[in-house]
């Protein structure tokens, strides 16, 4: 009897420990957001925006180094391509650029949705920059758009960690790095108008990241902020989701100055989200505003606010997570003509 009692107690204790262990291991979205860190963003950006990449001009050797850097990240993290096994490059022929660039590539990776794989959230950033100036100075493009590029890589890694834990997104996530933005949004237009790997009708939303690592003169008071453009243009529901996610998780100051229809800068039309919006895909464009180093060799990684970059990237991750996992896709209220 003593032996039986001992075994029974041991079994109860083991079950209790196992239950406690399982509770401890259970993770939620905040755990995955915390894997997005300023140290990793900084390490990647110091490479991606280094002189070695020669300003990443479309079709030039530095841009080819950039796409290999991006591909390696996905391969290392076992995040597949939606094009074909091991083929992460969407090739764009030289003829498409109308004499403005040599042949170039978009880079695509994705995580397949567990419940609604045919519905897709696209997270985009442009991988190119403006290359080398006539005086030989290299335009590193740390903010424009190295910041968006490394943000996507960290977001992708966070989603992959969640998938490994059995918490993969219900909808598919496409990580889309587009080329030729600086010379006319060529890469995103090629994806939307020529070769959409996922049908645009099944594309729930596009979250586009273009410059999120710096602070503009308007916001030099020290508080973290982000300009959001386009969130209510096609879907009021998308705007409301975005606002609710921000309030719940990070509470940044969301500035809609450039979302004004009368904005003289017309930023809504000047980054890659627009090629999705013109095809009736709801969009959010994340942007820190311009600064004195915009399109100059002085846009270097030492000037990035990595604490801000971390939180801004986490906000975009949280928003993508919500869009990917909510019961219904966000509704389109207004279609472009």
TrEMBL record:
Occurrences of domain Peptidase M28 (ranges) = 106-318
Q: Which organism is it from?
A: Hwangdonia seohaensis
* Keyword hit for Signal: yes
| Keywords from the UniProt entry | Signal
Which InterPro entries is this protein grouped with? Answer: EF_Hand_1_Ca_BS (IPR018247), M28_fam (IPR045175), Peptidase_M28 (IPR007484)
Annotated signal sequence range: 1-23
Q: Which CDD domains match?
A: M28_like_PA
Q: What name is this protein filed under?
A: M28 family metallopeptidase
